[in-house]
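Q: Make up one entry.
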Amino acid sequence: MKPEHCLLVVIAVLLAAAPLHAAQVHILNEDGPGEGFNDASAIAPVGDNPGTTLGAQRLIAFQFAADIWGAMLESAVDITVSARFDSQFCNGVQATLGSAGAATVSRNFPNAPLPDVWYHAALANKLAGSDLDPENPDISATFNSSIDAGCLDGISGYYYGLDNDPPAGTVDIVQVLLHEMGHGLGFSSFTNPITGAQFMDGDDIFSEFTHDLDAELNWNAMESDAARAASAKNGPKLVWHGAHTTAASTELDAAAELFIAAPGSIAGSHEAKFAAFGGTIDPTGITGDLVLVNDAKEMLLDGCDAIVNSVAGKIAVIDRGNCEFTTKVKNVQAAGAIAAIIVNNQVYGHAPLAGVDATITIPAAGVTHRTGEALKIALMSGVVSGTLRANTDERLGTRAGYLRLFAPETVIAGSSVSHFDEDSEPDLLMEPFVTKTGYDIDLTRPLFQDIGWTFVEGESEGEGEGEGEGEGEGEGEGEGEGEGEGEGEGEGEGESEGEGEGEGEGEGEGEGEGEGEGEGEGEGEGEGEGEGEGEGEGEGEAFEAESGAVHTADQNGDHAISLSELLRVIQFFNSGGYACAESAGATEDGYQPGPGSTLCSPHASDYNPADFEIDLSELLRLIQFFNSGGYVACPDLLPPTEDGFCPAMP
């Protein structure tokens, strides 16, 4: 049967049998004279990279990352990576880093392990034992040359050293390349996580192992797009159902658990993540009443100053933001708390409690924003008792013994599903946010074994994403834009998405998706048996832009919520409602507490429902912005929130 090919900038790889040897991975320089890999600007050798021009160092770093992958993977067919540097989006606080993805995909090729299942170029070639599309590269990659021009505040450029020792204020290009190539080699689903639609209405190898614990089904066995779309938001119950990866997940650190005994509204087990500092906890754990902290400095729960309310003998609940994690826990320890719970102010994952302080002896753990908000509501209504303990049945980043995939309650195109969950510890190469150090591929290796790759003795690493779609034999390119976050509480986070296009000639239609390191746009062109359109998406570290719409509570328009601005909304909350000011200019914000006219637009905090009353959840949302040090109008790369705003990163 003639192979079917699709234009794509995505990621997913598969096995093959075969005797095979180490793969040869080649970088194809797609840059023009004087740019990118051909930039002749003089530069000193750095970190074992002997290049003496910027272009030479770039090419050496790219080939270095390619050789790491090639030394591990078995394939008799050479793997080609089309690569280039272009000037892309960068505004000082946000920028595209780069993207990569598979250029073509195939199914029903010779030696295909499963019929009618899509495989990506490099893996399909390995399994077939021949290059199924010799006219085109296997992976496409594009990176932002503007990063080296210092376009990002606080970032001088990429670090081209090969020693895994990037100086502060640089982006380690090898880490980025390893991740991106990992996506191009096979770490991604072809299923659209937003709609649940399969690529070309067909199964793909990644979805063969994407499993929903509630439905007890792998994605390829689900009967509807709606079921897959719902599953894409079912974290932490979306897992990888492959034998090699499940066996290797025991390498992860033990998980923590916050077990709530009462009240019934939140009773049960809640996941937590132990701090890198403080006391340890066994499975018996520490039991006590939970209490919200009060440091008397602000109408906040950040615990950044001396605690004035009674937390002695209790488990202190603290919001993330405004100071170091160690400062928060040290303050509640001084006030007699027996343990600390820190609530994430970001909607994804647990608060990552980094830091070092040998004087902290009480245990601390981070919980998700969802868990924390439920705790706050319960605590404002009565007593909450619970136990913080080690969970002997789970590892960080697993559920029911299976390694979790990234599936936040709001889908992030280009990030959702096609990554390991960010709560894995130690950090993994293929998490959605760039936090890993070290040039190894950790649990990406067993996942690749699940989908069909075989390995020789060697080293491994990977990082990146890219998307696109289309059908027909042809060329494909993927571009992505991303964001990067600098330093903040010992972590780097980001996300992104984009759009792409594919064109071809012939019969049929196709759609596809991919990912990139960055907020991404992907494009592809091809000739062959089809034409298609696609979307390209990606991720990166996020430099939040303080621009865009201004929240009604932010009276001075500085994209931060001050104490007085917060107290104003608390006044509306305590008054049981608010109304339009009786006359223009009568108040700074145009509203007044209590009953009155409702002919004006509702306050931005009054969003669910917009009924001229501020309820507790709406007030807590504003407190979240205060805790995080500010807010932004949600970037276009994120699905919209109910109020249209997102907390700024601390």
